[in-house]
Amino acid sequence: MNILIIGANSAIANAVARRYAARHCSLFLVARNEKRLQTQRQDLEVRGAKRVGIHVLNVLEHDKHAEAIKAGHAFFDGADIDIALISHGSLPDQDAAEADFELAKREIDVNGLSVISLLSHLIPPFKAQGRGILAVVTSVAGDRGRQPNFIYGAAKSLVSTYLQGLRGKLLPHGIHVVDIRPGLVDSPMTAQFEKGALWSTPELVAAPIEKAIDGKRHTVYVPGYWRIIMGIVCSIPEVVFKRLKL
Amino acid sequence: MLLTGWGRYPTVTSQVTAPGNVDALTKQLPAYPSGTCLIPRGAGRSYGDSALAEQVVSSRFLDNFIALDADNLRISCGAGVTLAEVLRLCVPQGLFPPVLPGTKHISMGGAIAADIHGKNHHVDGTFCDHVESISLALASGELVHCSRSENSELFHATCGGMGLTGVIVEARLKLAKVSSVSINTESIAAANLKESLTLLNEHNEKKYVVAWVDCLARGAALGRGIIHCGDHSDAGELRHRESSSIGVPFTTPGLLLNRVTMATFNNLYFNRHSWAKGARQQYYDKFFFPLDSIRNWNRLYGSRGFLQYQFVLPDESAESGLTEILGAVSSAGKGSFLAVLKRFGAANENLLSFPRAGLTLTLDFKFEPSLLSLLDELDAMVLAHGGRLYLAKDARMSEAVFKQSYPNWEAFKAIKDRVDPDGLFASMQSNRLGLSGADMGSSTA
């Protein structure tokens, strides 16, 4: 199986890539940091990946997106890409981004617009091959605008809404679209946080993500209990919700 | 955040960072202001306070494999890789870690820092005896490659050095070859301590030997136990099986582990193995890691946690020392749920490594304030018999006891001071034992 991963260095993508490596898939990794990509390539090769290719890309440079996707096709020797996983993102400082539009714009670009740009470059080759799975890591933060992270949430819901429409549009072409919404997942960035019972690890969410992709699910919450939590969060009447700082 | 060791005693408020790669770590280390106490932490499976400090740097995300050379039996990986991951990768290829402790959920870095041992120490030595080289991040941010031929002093200080010389970031480990996932095991009942010791001696040529001891048995039955022996089977397959486990979802009231429940458990365990003795085959996971089948078993000891107490006594004084110590534990009524007796082979060159020729006994005790004075009494007995305690389990040993029983501590300190002149690397334990700077952090027990 040929798998292209954008934002491959992210803790979640890394954990998912390891699962596919153990299944002897070929992987093409796209991320910002070349040295980390090399470390990751070694790791995935040891874990059983058939072949691993790497490509350096800063997702904010939209004009380089086409080249990255092309490099992926070249790596797979023109063979079909079975799965494209987009999982890059950044968690902005909400207060700073509220106060500084340039920062807000940048965060919406990283978490939202750049994903749309990458998808627009992936769709034509996927249509041409007439099959494949587009999987995108969004967030439970996109389900409802909450005070602590609504800029991040807005960017993520932009992607989720886009994916909802895209899913139908690509149906006749045999292409499947998966929206993966993780809850709180431990990563190098969250090491300092006090971890309550709701926190999960990249390893724990990687298994259901793999299952959701393979099983062609539409929208999947990982871990699964986040569907219930967000169901409750979304059902709180606005007159109450606007007073909540959760 | 609040942090504890596996024993859940003591608790300390720590700032935890988990660098995503080695570059981030080496950038981070020189940036700490002087006076900072920082300790590396792997999977958090040391029992006491050896991985607790006001600043903790976790190797959690340094968990990448670097190379697996099946022909030359070598594996290189980041310090955060757990033995569970190594096993998952290696076992299907007929490769096996040469030394395994009682849990697979420990990190490579932690295994080296504590120079852990397994049931085969009398044959194969410690974990570090099979470590070919390590890469160590010093306080200055410099990366140093250490082996027996390169920076060998630092290598022997870091192996078993409890993370006090720097952060181990990568390691290269020699592997053993196996042809099956099965272990041929044999269990033999021993009616008392003398018989347990005799059986341990008689089975010294077996690769894996460990004895479970009933600490609550008194009088003539003092030290009764079951000796478990094992060796790799030649027959069978090399398929990895995901082992199932059940969790302890919350901390149970410590009352559940009391004298009555423990005595009942011990009787059941003893009788089950006395009846079901003889040879059989076991999946390796069940043989090496019986406790891994209960995740968070440390919660069973209640909210105040527990202390493990592991000591080694030289052969000549082992029998008298063990009789005295087991007698003291038994008459204090402080039953130990787990009591494990093993034979060690000769010590290695690592300055702070625990194992030395003799017998080692591991006990665990639910924490209660009255326990500390009993353990101080046991310390005196261990010292009187020429023994010492395992740093990876300790949470309360005194500086005097440590320095008396680890004669290489000064040589260790000299090397530590050379590579860490500002004393950045320090744990609650190292401060208590006089291996690092002044008192630190607020500890709430």
From TrEMBL, chain A:
Q: What keyword terms does UniProt attach to this protein?
A: Oxidoreductase
**GO molecular function, a single term:** oxidoreductase activity
Keyword Isomerase in record = no
Keyword Oxidoreductase annotated: yes
Extract the InterPro entries matched here. NAD(P)-bd_dom_sf (IPR036291), SDR_fam (IPR002347)
> Which domain of life does the UniProt lineage start with?
Bacteria
Assigned GO CC terms: membrane
Coiled-coil intervals, chain numbering: none
Say which family it is in. Answer: Belongs to the short-chain dehydrogenases/reductases (SDR) family.
Recorded protein name is SDR family oxidoreductase
Give the organism, scientific name.
OM182 bacterium
From TrEMBL, chain B:
Q: Which domain of life is it from?
A: Bacteria
* Provenance organism: OM182 bacterium
Keywords from the UniProt entry: FAD, Flavoprotein, Oxidoreductase
Q: Which InterPro entries match?
A: ALO_C, FAD-bd_PCMH, FAD-bd_PCMH-like_sf, FAD-bd_PCMH_sub2, FAD-linked_Oxase-like_C, FAD_lactone_oxidase-like, Oxid_FAD_bind_N
Q: Looking at the UniProt record for this protein, which Gene Ontology cellular component terms does it annotate, in alphabetical order?
A: membrane
Record domain FAD-binding PCMH-type: where? 9-178
What is the name of the protein in this document? FAD-binding oxidoreductase
GO molecular function annotation: D-arabinono-1,4-lactone oxidase activity; FAD binding
Q: Which PANTHER family match?
A: D-ARABINONO-1,4-LACTONE OXIDASE (PTHR43762:SF1), L-GULONOLACTONE OXIDASE (PTHR43762)
